Amino acid sequence: MINLNDGDIYEVEQKLGFTFDETRKNIIKTFDDVQACPGSGKTTMVAAKLLIIAKKWQSKHQGVCVLTHTNVAKQEIIDRLNQDSDGVKLLSYPHFIGTIQEFINKYIAIPALRSNELCVNHIDDEMCNTKAWYLLSHSTRAYLERNRITSLQDLQYKFNAGELELSVPGFDSASPSRSYRELLEAKDILIKDGYYYYHEMYAFANKSIHDTPELLDSIRHRFPFAFIDEMQDTQKFQDELLNKIFLHENVKFQRFGDPDQAIYSGNGEENQTYNTAVLDTVENSHRFDNSIALLAKNLSYNRINLTSNKTVPVISQHTIFLVDENSRYNVFNAFARLCEQAIPIDCVNPIKTVGAVGKRKEESLTICHYLDSFDKDNNINKFKPKKLIHYFYEAKRLIGGHEAYHMVLSGIARCGRMADCELTFSDNSKSFYSTTSIRKYLKDSNNFIDFNMLVKGLIDSSMDVTRWNDTIARLLVLTGMQTSTVKRDFILFESSIEAGAPQNETYSNRVIVNINGKIVENELSTIHSVKGETHAATLVLETKNYNFDIGTLIDYILNENTVKPTAVRKKGFMKMLYVAFSRPEHLLCIAMDKSRFPPEHISKSNYAGWNICDLTT
Length: 617
Hints:
Blueprint: H1 6-16, H2 22-29, E1 34-36, H3 42-56, E2 64-68, H4 71-82, E3 96-99, H5 100-115, E4 122-123, H6 125-135, H7 138-146, E5 157-160, E6 163-166, H8 178-193, E7 195-196, H9 200-211, H10 214-222, E8 225-228, H11 236-246, E9 252-257, E10 280-282, E11 284-285, H12 290-296, E12 307-308, E13 319-323, H13 330-342, E14 351-355, H14 388-397, H15 401-418, E15 422-424, E16 430-432, H16 435-444, H17 448-460, H18 465-478, H19 488-491, E17 506-507, E18 510-515, E19 518-526, E20 535-541, E21 544-545, E22 547-548, H20 549-557, H21 568-581, E23 584-593, E24 606-607, E25 610-614
Parallel strand pairs: 1-9, 1-10, 2-3, 2-8, 4-7, 8-9, 11-12, 13-23, 13-25, 14-19, 14-20, 20-23
Antiparallel strand pairs: 5-6, 15-16, 17-18, 18-19, 21-22, 24-25
Helix pairs in contact: 1-3, 2-3, 3-4, 5-9, 6-8, 7-8, 14-15, 17-18, 20-21
């Protein structure tokens, strides 16, 4: 078994040009679960540990398993390892670095399905939903819509008491109805054609382990070292399966994350064995200075002593803006003026405004009440403009990278679905258009490089009608379409001004303010969408989900209450706002309704580390 010592850490420090404190050294040397505060350099710690292990690794048939919750975190670890000759060894057999989903698919679920002579072609919710919906008759679709079911997301197998059970949307039990029979037939066709939902792969994995328990010994022998990053985001069903596999005396198993940042966008239950455990903590952040640490730590649910060694500015600009219905929009100009003063000229991180509730609800309080043009669905997954070219303009704004590329693929996929086209692969199998199937098709047809070069050329250039028409025609052919088959209006050229490109004031989810000749661009997002990000400055807006989040927690924000909340909703608010409060590097501000701010503090210019600015007067 590999042991890690101070000498190993010293060597890796020389490689990375980074010195670890005693807390971080102990985490690298041991295998205890860790709570790493925002900006603690968690990925650097994980990478350092992996580099040490990689240098000492001898086995050609056993490997290290590194699991993450998202592809972004996976790529960050891969990028770190790619920079080192020892680290590169972990990127191939017998090791595995990938998402939890990829691991469950590759080592348990897919082998189980294939052992039952079932093919696996696509694991993708979007593709399953689209294909199944098209298989239903008009009357069955109408039945589902009358029951407010517009997606077949629940048409999945679930594991219960040792058996697989199929959930059928719109029905609580078996039915002799035609609609019920059509849904069963649609599921049979999905399985026959090799289409599966992400979540149900866990059901197949659990069934396989239940039927063949010795499978666990095989996996543990293959991976005697296992690490999980972003553990706070794993849900209960993932946690239970991972513990069943790796929580064993034959495996060195370590989990990294931050339970204080455990926020969920779905209805899934959070994990029980990590987020509620007593963990080793890293409380010192490299992201922000102590003036922000003192404010953010008041919202740490686990009450960690968040600190920083970074130099605190002489004058603190962190501000609570008091607003009312008539002054909410004014907060953007006031925030921009502070940004112009507080953010160093060489800072490259974005300025962002965030809120917990983005969906427009007139009777509530959402981001839309501060910025009427805000559209929560204006993102890669739900962005649905009226023309294909809008996807390319948005990709330009995202300035390259994975998000920009995915934005383009989303537009092409939508174009294919609108044209009711299917992709045909070299083995004559077919697929509906999705970002996943397009990538697979491009590789299958050897068009991947040509497609990428055309996309890059279009995004990097100033688009005109000639360049657009020529390039898009070639892109559609490379992705299995002809311009004659697609909806003409959707692929027509439109200039950036017509498409709604930013001019001087507000554009969808951005506010652009001119402060003494300096342009301050402020992007609005939900708190969920900025997890893991670092901002130059962050403005947090009070919103309402049954209760007002900032108003509910103002006594914590002002450090007048230090008792852990027990109410589920209040606990959720605290974790949500903690994520928001721990994003900025230089400036933290909040905006809340004056009526919910303690009246005894309204007349004060500052209190508890905050400046207090009344915008209602």
